[in-house]
From TrEMBL, chain B:
Region: Disordered, residue numbers: 147-169
Record domain Carboxyltransferase: where: 26-303
A Pfam family the protein falls into: CT_A_B
GO molecular function: ATP binding; hydrolase activity; transferase activity
Species, as recorded: Paenirhodobacter ferrireducens
InterPro entries, sorted: CT_A_B, Cyclophilin-like_dom_sf, PxpC
PANTHER family hit by this protein: 5-OXOPROLINASE SUBUNIT C
NCBIfam families linked to this entry: urea_amlyse_rel
Protein name stated in the entry: Biotin-dependent carboxyltransferase
Length: 244, 314
């Protein structure tokens, strides 16, 4: 990967955290660096580091000010950032079954009309893209994706829907999402996965991790219902044919 | 299980909390844990529990409780009336509660968040490494929810401490709420930063374990109030389109798309959480280095106060 980013900014977040900002906006190279730095810090932790949070464009680190500090961490992080190989974080490949119908298929008809595509063409475009979990935020397990085809980018709706169901696949501007919880949203929605991205009672509460690569697989209503029932029982079902 | 604590009556937001859930920010799960970490730590220390034990947190008013075995109990957070088996229990001290006796914990005066620790700690099953309740996401604690009358909580092994009381202050009681400007202070013009640091803000009634909304002079951002989401902390002061600052707290969202003008320093988070609704506060900015020195000093003060508990003779 060719990186043309300026040196990262080190932004203070109080006495016990800092943010390494690689870019001001959504940026694939910045996201790759944030993910690579998170992986690097997991593999070789720095003293006093408590937790890390990669986003589309930055990495927030929390630390214990009795052990380390902003200046110490900045000095330790600079050479490690310079040595990062962002392509090194492969990310697990996950197959995500998607039903383009049902209660989360709220905007498919409007999007086909707006974009002058047939329903099948629009679904094929959405299905065929290579997505990556750019960050998890907003709620436990809520996955923000990069990789949405430009032709599918859709401005946020003026009206906020008060409850969009969990598992819904959304489009907001150039971003895409797989929602983990039912929540208010101004994004557009065209399908739903029966997978439960977050279940605190499960041995592995979070199905997806930042950096994971997603491949969507189209399913029908009957398969959706079967998989949803199994997911409700706590089964981890990335794909029934090729279990993770 | 070595005994139980039964909830006979509960205030509106009674939850199991430990020091919080770390390591899951990247999965969208904030730490939860106590709104007032020092008061929580004091309650555990007073009954002889390890610092990581789970205790109960309540908002404004406690409730009534009964233990199945002899225990030590302590209440902290602020001034309140409490009785253990009909005997007065002073806040910031521990006392014996015999098996079957009733503990009553009344309303807090001049504070918002109270803590009740029981010797042995609350031993609900840990979820993702912690017993802390994340109310909004229904994670941890007792079934992920606020406690109700009839709930019965398991207790851990009795540590065998004696009743004790706090003898020195856990932290400074007065003064402005200290912040470090940023991470997005550059989204605000110099006069808006001066307004933020010069004005008084009132804590509004819109407050919970997620956030505190403040009332006061609006803080318009220079180039709009949408940023590409980045990480949030407990203490992040974010400013949405209304211009009214919101301080994110224990159960916050892990990422946010509003500019964050400043971050409240960790030694002042508990004090901020305890400011009654309607009361005024001011902010004061410190450099990062000064804030880190304050954090170390506060950790020392709190540790010294908890190491110097006096027997009550009860």
């Amino acid at each position: 990967m060719v990186l043309n980013l300026p040196a990262p900014r080190f932004l203070p977040c109080g006495d016990a955290a800092l943010t390494v900002e690689f870019a001001p906006g959504i940026d694939a190279a910045a996201n790759a660096l944030a993910l690579a730095l998170a992986a690097d810090l997991e593999a070789a932790p720095l003293p006093g580091l408590c937790d890390v949070l990669p986003t589309y464009r930055s990495l927030t680190l929390s630390y214990d000010p009795c052990v380390t500090g902003f200046a110490t961490l900045r000095a330790a992080l600079r050479p490690r950032i310079a040595a990062l190989r962002p392509g090194a974080v492969e990310g697990a490949v996950r197959s995500i079954p998607v039903f383009y119908g049902g209660p989360a298929c709220l905007d498919l008809a409007r999007l086909t009309a707006e974009k002058g595509m047939t329903e099948d063409a629009l679904i094929a475009l959405h299905l065929g893209a290579a997505y990556r979990v750019a960050m998890i935020g907003f709620a436990p397990g809520f996955a923000y994706l990069s990789g949405l085809p430009a032709a599918l980018a859709t401005p946020r709706r003026a009206e906020v829907r008060q409850r969009v169901t969990e598992g819904a696949l959304g489009i907001g501007g150039g971003q895409a999402s797989v929602n983990s919880v039912a929540a208010p949203s101004a994004w557009s929605y065209i399908g739903q996965t029966p997978l439960r991205l977050f279940d605190a009672a499960r041995a592995r509460p979070c199905l997806l991790a930042p950096g994971d690569r997603l491949r969507l697989r189209r399913i029908g209503e009957a398969e959706f219902d079967t998989l949803a029932a199994r997911a409700c029982r706590g089964e981890i079902l990335f794909d029934p044919e090729t279990p993770a | 299980m070595t005994g139980t604590l039964e909830i006979l009556a509960a205030g509106p937001m009674l939850t199991v909390q430990d020091r919080g859930r770390t390591g899951f920010l990247r999965f969208g799960v904030s730490a939860s844990g106590p709104m007032d970490g020092e008061a929580f730590a004091a309650a555990n220390a007073l009954v002889g529990n390890a610092p990581g034990a789970a205790a109960l947190e309540f908002a404004l008013t406690g409730g009534r409780f009964r233990a199945s075995r002899d225990v030590l109990v302590a209440v902290t957070g602020g001034a309140m009336r409490a009785e253990a088996g009909g005997r007065p229990l002073a806040p910031w001290s521990s006392a014996r509660l015999r098996a079957g006796e009733e503990l009553t914990v009344g309303a807090l005066r001049g504070a918002v968040w109270g803590y009740l620790a029981v010797s042995g700690g609350i031993e609900t099953p840990p979820v993702m490494g912690s017993r802390a309740t994340h109310l909004r996401s229904a994670i941890g604690g007792h079934e992920g929810r606020a406690l109700r009358p009839g709930d019965v909580l398991p207790l851990g092994p009795e540590p065998g401490a004696l009743p004790r009381r706090l003898t020195r202050p856990l932290r400074p009681r007065h003064g402005p709420i200290r912040v470090v400007l940023g991470p997005q202070d550059d989204a605000f013009a110099p006069e808006i930063l001066a307004r933020f640091l010069g004005a008084s803000y009132a804590v509004s009634a819109q407050r919970d374990r997620m956030a505190l909304l403040l009332e006061g002079p609006a803080l318009p951002a220079a180039r709009g109030h949408d940023i590409t989401s980045d990480g949030t902390l407990m203490g992040s002061v974010q400013v949405p389109l209304s211009g009214r600052p919101i301080v994110l707290m224990a159960d916050r969202q892990t990422t946010g798309g509003f500019p964050k003008i400043a971050t409240v320093i960790t030694p002042d988070l508990g004090r901020l959480a305890q400011i009654p609704t309607g009361a005024m506060l001011r902010f004061h900015a410190l450099s990062v280095e000064a804030a880190e020195a304050e954090a170390r000093a506060a950790a020392r003060q709190s540790a010294e106060a908890l190491a110097d508990l006096a027997p009550t003779g009860a």
